[in-house]
Amino acid sequence: MKKKFVYKVDKCLGCKSCEIACAVAHSTSGDLFNAVNEFDALSPRKKVYASSGKNYPVSCKQCDEPQCVSACMSGALAVDPKEKNVLYDETRCVGCWMCVMACPYGAIKPDKKSKKTVRCDQCKDKDEPQCLKACPTKAILWTSS
């Protein structure tokens, strides 16, 4: 069953704890104090934006008809036939960034150092997304759809 993030905008403080947790989780060291020296710690897969007095966390929406998958010429992005989540195979990415341009939410970012894309993988190698654990107000929910 597909899992998606849902954000309670009225609870988001804009503290960016989710961004930090995401960057650390995807760093080589996996440790906050060592991650500050790593380039990959600067590329969180979630970003918090502010507008009109509200804060809006943005990450992959796991769209039902993902434009990023349709735009990916190399097959690096695909829909898992069982779970229906969008999967990313970095080894297949050619760095064309068509997915970046196709995503209507701005949830996929170009990584200029690796020349590939960076997108939320829902911390697939962890028991739960680290942004979820880090949010002090529980403004991030992870639900099945």
Description:
With 145 residues, this protein is of the alpha+beta class. It has two domains: 1-59 and 127-145, Alpha-Beta Plaits; 63-119, Alpha-Beta Plaits, CATH 3.30.70. Helix content is 19%, strand content 22%. It contains five helices and eight strands; from the N terminus they run βααββαββαββαβ. The protein has a two-stranded antiparallel sheet with strand order 1-8. It has a two-stranded antiparallel ribbon with strand order 2-3. Strands 4-5 form a two-stranded antiparallel ribbon. A hairpin with a 2-residue loop joins strand 2 (47-51) and strand 3 (54-58). The chain is globular, with a radius of gyration of 15 Å. The N and C termini lie close together (7 Å). The mean pLDDT is 90.
